Amino acid sequence: MPFFSVGEKVIVRHDIQTGMDYKMEDPCEGWIVVSEMASYKGKVLTIKKASKAGYRCRECDEWWWSDEMFEEYLHRNDCCAEYGDFEPAPVGDLMAMIYGT
Fold first, then answer.
1. CB neighbours of 54 closer than 8 A, spacing ≥ 6?
2. Cα–Cα 20 to 30 A to 83, which of 2, 26, 73, 89?
3. Which helix (H) or strand (E) holds 93?
4. Of 23-27, 48-52, 55-59, which range is least confident?
5. Torsion of the alpha carbons at 36, 93, 14 and 50, rounded to the nearest 10
6. Positive or negative: CA dihedral 68, 71, 76, 79
7. What is the pTM of this model?
């Protein structure tokens, strides 16, 4: 079940970074930020479509967004509070972990 609902307003993380992988609440799902998405830092978006795989937003329907890309997820998600600030892993580091390169 998606963390956010259709019609809900969300704020794109102020520290979102191009090339980083941000996950959904289900850690098997996630999306990598492209440069155009990073231009929405700190801006309010409206959830247009919500699914287990991610979100589409009214203001920028061409990309999929994930839970960790939004400020509200970091502040409302109790399971992450015990870990403090979330720092996504760079994509290169993830590839090295997966493929051992």
1. 24, 29, 30, 31, 64, 65, 66
2. 2
3. helix 91-99
4. 23-27
5. 70
6. positive
7. 0.71
